[in-house]
Specification:
By secondary structure, the chain is α/β, with parallel strands linked by helices. It contains ten helices and 17 strands. The strands form three sheets. Strands 4-5-3-6-10-9-7-8 form an eight-stranded mixed β-sheet. Helix 2 (58-67) packs across helix 7, helix 3 (86-94) packs parallel to helix 4 (124-143) and helix 5 packs across helix 6 (222-231). The structure holds S-adenosylmethionine.
Amino acid sequence: MLIRIIITPQKSLNIDVMQELFLTCPGGLETICENELKTIGILNTRIKPGGVSIFGEEETIFKINLWTRTGVRLLVKIDHFECRNKNELYQGVHQIDWNSIFTTQNTFSVNGFFRSEDESLRNTHYATLVCKDAIVDRFKKECNSRPDVNKLDPQFHIFVHVHHNRGTVYLNSSGSPLYKRGYRRGKMHKASMNEALAAGIMLLTGWNGSTPLYDPMCGSGTLSIEAMMIAANYAPGLIRSKFAFMNWKFFDPHDWNNLISNAKDSIKRQIKPEIFASDIRRDAIQMAKENYRNIRDLSHSIMWDVQSVTDLEPDENPGMIVMNPPYGERTGEMESLKILYKGIGDMLKTNCQGYSAYLFTASSELMKQVGLKTSRRIPLRNGNLECRLLKYDLYAGSKKGKYMDNKS
Ligand SMILES: C[S@@+](CC[C@H](N)C(=O)[O-])C[C@H]1O[C@@H](n2cnc3c(N)ncnc32)[C@H](O)[C@@H]1O
């Protein structure tokens, strides 16, 4: 039987009724994130900046952690209060019945987002310390003892949000961000994209596995791997063995294991999506292959190759191209990147008629070098960077004349 979790009027975590949840996601993917929830049967949702708010119970918490591709952290609301200064913050956090949520034997950490007129609350480090002290003092008062803080791998992740004089305290049910799927285990590609963003880009393109997909600057393979997981209906949470909710007293492994078995049964094992992933760097392809091999139960083939994007000559059958070229923030120099982007535009113009192409970049200067008209420009955030996902419709034959340089 699935257990229901609630926050009782005593400001504690308990079982029985519906719960207010908030699923965070990369900026710009809120609608996609909400659509994903609908596809797994979660309808009680509302889009908010930076995520989706949801009403749900334990099954909802499990399902979202297992299935969301674009969600980053699923937060369970514990309490909210007026919060204009550090005293109100301390009181608001202190009044929660923490001992009913975890014990002095558990470890915890506090993270937060603080926007306030009060100067002391503008310092995130200081504000989280106030929250930590409030929790510790409450335990000491009631138990004469306190739980330890563990910043790296806590059992209980507390998240405090302060904005417009309102404080909200959440328990993070996911733990480490859900984009840490667990398939990147070795050395990281220095410009790799986070998995939630890559999945969001693929969902925005609408690619579903029925046409060929080319990822000619694949780096560590994130876009191709997420694309394959989408086509094969592979739940991203199947790769992870650890979620914070597993430390909760109400966690019932039986309910969780049922959802895991259902997710395994719903993998589309017979399909053969055509995904061609390439990069100019051999070590990147090596890394991408290793990442893909780390996903158990996903045995569909991705075709890997070492080649320059400018040499891409996709198949006659139209399909889709998705590219994440370097954009100067982390790798490469501007002048050589301008030449690269111009080369990408020329390649698309000459070799990819009939295809749809998507290019993800943060540089408006570099976008212009492609020299093709965009049919969509979707704003997305990659961490602190304002980026764009640009779409190019590469018409065949007579429509070639459309490829004039313009405001793209
Ligand atoms: C921003 S990274 C892509 C990261 C990738 N999305 C990931 O998640 O790992 C850009 C990639 O473009 C590759 N690259 C640079 N110039 C290239 C070229 N001319 N042809 C193909 N790949 C190129 C780099 O080696 C790098 O791996």
